Amino acid sequence: AGEIADAMRRAGPSWLDDVATVDVFPLELEGQKVRSVTFALTFGNAAGRSADEVNAANESLLRAVITRFGD
Length: 71
Prior knowledge:
By secondary structure, the protein is of the alpha+beta class. It is built from two helices and two strands. The protein has a two-stranded antiparallel ribbon with strand order 1-2. The longest helix has 19 residues, at about 50-70. It is elongated, with a radius of gyration of 14 Å. The chain starts with a helix and ends with a helix. The mean pLDDT is about 95.
């Protein structure tokens, strides 16, 4: 989870203030042991960012994580 959080910090916009691991859920999926991780993202809003801007940043972070670590 720490490597994923670090990757999000590096890939995120300058106004991504914090990436915190909230919970890790170990589970089995199709016979494979995997972990489901929940993150809390804190974005600064000094410039009055719109929901569309924050959503675009989240999509960009998701693509960066998938590119780095896979599905």
